[in-house]
Amino acid sequence: MRAIGAEYIRIGVMVRKRRVVVGMSGGVDSSVAAALLLEQGYEVIGAMMKIWDGRKLPEEGAGHSCYGPGELEDLSDAQKVSEFLGIKFFALDLSRAYNEQVLDPFCREYLCGRTPNPCVICNHKMKFGELPRKISEAGIEFDFFATGHYSRVEYDPGRKRYLLKKALDLSKDQTYFLYHLSQDQLSRTLFPLGDLRKEQVRKIAEKLGLPVAFKKESQDFIAGSDYSILFPQERHPGPILDQDGNQIGEHRGIMFYTIGQRKGLRITAKEPLYVIRIDPEKNAVIAGPREKLFQRELRAVNLNWIAMERPTENFKARGRIRQQHREAEAEVVPEGALVRVTFDQPQMAVTPGQAVVFYQDDLVLGGGTIGNSGDERMDRNPGNDYPIKRG
Questions:
Q1: Burial of residue 167, with CB atoms counted within 10 A of its CB: 0-12 exposed, 13-18 middle, 19 or more buried
Q2: What is the CATH number of domain 235-288?
Q3: Helix and strand tally (H, E) in the chain?
Q4: What pLDDT band is residue 160 in, cutting at 50, 70 and 90?
């Protein structure tokens, strides 16, 4: 096989367009991504994964969630866009894999007192994992896989590595959710929106007359961020304790609480109290004043490195501990399979289970999962401390 242009390849004596499978969601971004690739001369195929298994979920609003009955509307919209663009479209039922690889680990982490990020898990396991793999298994050959993420991929001949970089539109940058991509995945990934701003993408959709040009974005993982439906038999009430171990209230179940949470504690105190720690062994939520939410150090596990091989020496980077978190200067110290991260300034609500991603300017160095303070269990057996009971 020999490349003869950006959008063509030669196979023997035959020449065909380079083929791109676009992971579609029925939204504006992935639809414009497909349209742009088609305009650039690629052969484009649309594909959408069906992940909702039909279980009853909270009512959705106008901007429905990623997981839920709104999927039916999204599927219809993705089909309409594909027909409008004149491209083939496939819908793959991956609900079983989604339960096993996203929902079940998500639930286990919550029952361990941690707060996982479903978007990180989904991108790693499903969008860039199961979806392209199932397409290949269906006998559909393709050269690239593309999505509507606001990110950029570049090859650095000096490093001999594919690099993940922030999008031009920093307000929409999604690299935080993509730090787990491997070199093999990055080598075959296209992000057509990486050099565009959101308002430009909307204008392109309107100019082209795409059926979803004015569609609102999905808002939550599950409507209203109400995860109670995922824990039908795991809602064990327990004590809310102060820092001295005195009971000051009762919680509904540790899965309903996360570090930094203030609302929903239903306790009376002289000063505002926040969740500062969750103790799954005692089935307890520990509350304290805001200043107790700040810490300088964390340990990260389940690491993936993009811009470098696994580091063996200390280095400086800017760490982001949530998607909306402002990156902060830190020193990263390798400790075997873990890294210890010490921020120059204390950071608020460092939350076990969330991702920490390391940056240098617009370059993603890599990232990992924030572990429990002083607890290496996540590295040995992440999220498997508790079985999930099925109703």
A1: buried
A2: 2.30.30.280
A3: 9, 20
A4: very high
